[in-house]
Design brief:
The chain has about 450 residues and is mainly alpha-helical. The chain contains 25 helices and two strands. The longest helix is centred in the last third of the chain and has 18 residues. The radius of gyration is 29 Å and the shape is elongated. The two termini are about 50 Å apart.
Length: about 450
């Protein structure tokens, strides 16, 4: 139902609302005329319109749903409705798993055919959901009737979703069931792809939920990876917090992919580089040995080892290790890291005054970033900074300025949490500013990340 029609219905029932409140009510009722009318009656009954929130277990709505819908179903169908109300969306096999039954497809088709507020959500008639108001009433009834059963229902739902390749839904149900072991195992695999998709708040919510069970398996690995995620996002205080959690737990055990916990913590230490290049090199080698051969993080450890040699001035050894890191990162599809290793090799080639090699490395690194749309990644700051320097070296000052701007936008990500590459990128950015005759910009790099995008 459109907003104008909803406004007319509400007005006819004696209620006038601002447009925003009407739109919210249409959303809550899904435009269902009976729902809108009952909401209007509830407001006329004394509920203040300004703060009114209409739910399925509202007295008027609940009485209507029970009288018009729940009394029309059999006892077995009522049980089906109650127990499957824990699900955001349903299909026959999922409902069978939750109910330990075999007839869910038939029951769903019957409910849909009788217009009992069960909504198909695909064209094949496989997936369904309940109208929001009906589901809210059913969930309230289930909670009042058998709250202990809810945990078991969510546990069954979590197992089905995990087995059927829907891990995020499995996490949601496992959390409600209090199954910390299942949550931790799932989150360990999910956290990196989820945060790279831009949903860092989801990852943080999972990690904070798991803080209730610090002894759960894999928790220290989750904290370690979380620390590095926050470091890459330019949030050093959160990175430090989770690094402390990881390092405060026993470094024992083996993760599902075969990596050791000791190797995982060494991976964290190598990236944080708190104790100089020699310790960084030791940690990266320990991590290399402890991480599973199938782990994409091994490429990052080759990068860290190469950095340790570069810091010690051993350019030849550093270049060989960076080349190996590039090959491994490319093989694993870790393309932002692959571009970063090319930028590292640019620095070594420029140090040798081998500008043909440096130009080729910079161009390739930029191509990877642009093809993958990695402009906002921490790893790309150094790529853009060296690209600016390369463009300035060949006299293309306009291109150099554009690369400077792109690198400067990433300035807030360059913090002490990941010190080596952050300092490299800052130094190269300052050099690039000087190359384009912008000494004020170079000064701003050292002064801190005060909206660098606006001043580049």
């Amino acid at each position: 139902m459109a907003r104008t029609e909803a406004s007319a219905l509400l007005k006819g029932a004696g209620v006038e609302l601002p447009e925003s409140r009407t739109e919210d009510l249409v959303r809550r009722t899904e435009g269902w005329p009976a729902g809108l009318y009952l909401a209007a009656l509830a407001m006329r009954d004394g509920s203040p319109a300004e703060s009114f929130t209409f739910t399925g277990d509202d007295r008027l709505m609940g009485d209507y749903l029970r009288a018009e819908f729940l009394t029309r179903v059999s006892r077995s169908q009522a049980t089906f409705l109650l127990r499957t109300s824990i699900l955001d969306r349903m299909c026959g096999p999922l409902c069978d798993a939750v109910l330990s039954g075999k007839e869910s497809v038939r029951v769903l088709e019957q409910l849909v055919s009788r217009n009992l507020l069960v909504v198909p959500i695909d064209r094949r008639g496989e997936w369904y959901r309940y109208h929001h108001l009906l589901r809210e009433l059913l969930q309230a009834e289930l909670q009042r009737g058998d709250p202990d059963l809810i945990t078991e229902l969510h546990s069954r739902a979590a197992a089905w979703h995990e087995a059927n390749g829907l891990p995020e839904a499995a996490v949601d149900h496992a959390q409600v069931a209090g199954d910390a072991e299942r949550v931790a195992g799932l989150v360990l695999d999910l956290m990196n792809p989820v945060w790279t998709s831009g949903r860092i708040d989801t990852v943080r919510r999972w990690m904070e939920w798991l803080e209730q069970w610090p002894s759960v398996r894999h928790y220290s690995a989750i904290a370690a990876h979380g620390a590095l995620i926050f470091a890459l996002l330019g949030r050093p205080s959160e990175a430090e917090r989770w690094a402390a959690v990881a390092e405060g737990l026993p470094a024992t055990g083996t993760l599902p992919d075969g990596s050791t916990m000791a190797g995982t913590l060494a991976y964290l230490r190598a990236n944080l580089c708190r104790d100089g290049p020699e310790k960084m090199r030791h940690d990266s080698r320990e991590a290399w040995e402890g991480l599973s051969p199938a782990s994409p993080y091994r490429a990052a450890m080759l990068h860290a080892e190469g950095l340790s040699y570069a810091l010690d001035g051993d350019l030849d050894h550093a270049d060989a290790v960076f080349a190996h890191a590039y090959d491994l990162a490319t093989g694993f599809g870790a393309l932002p890291l692959a571009a970063l290793t090319l930028a590292e090799r640019f620095l070594l080639a420029a140090e040798r005054d081998d500008w043909p090699a440096a130009e080729s490395l910079s161009q390739h690194a930029v191509e990877i970033v642009e093809a993958g749309h990695y402009d906002g990644y921490w790893t790309s700051a150094l790529v853009f900074a060296v690209a600016a320097r390369a463009a300035a070296h060949r006299g293309q000052m306009q291109a150099a300025r554009q690369y400077v701007k792109r690198a400067a936008r990433l300035r807030p990500l360059l913090t002490y949490a990941l010190p080596v590459v952050s300092v490299q990128a800052l130094l190269e950015l300052a050099r690039a500013y000087l190359a384009v005759v912008d000494p004020a910009g170079a000064c701003r790099v050292g002064a801190g990340p005060r909206n660098p995008a606006a001043t580049a």
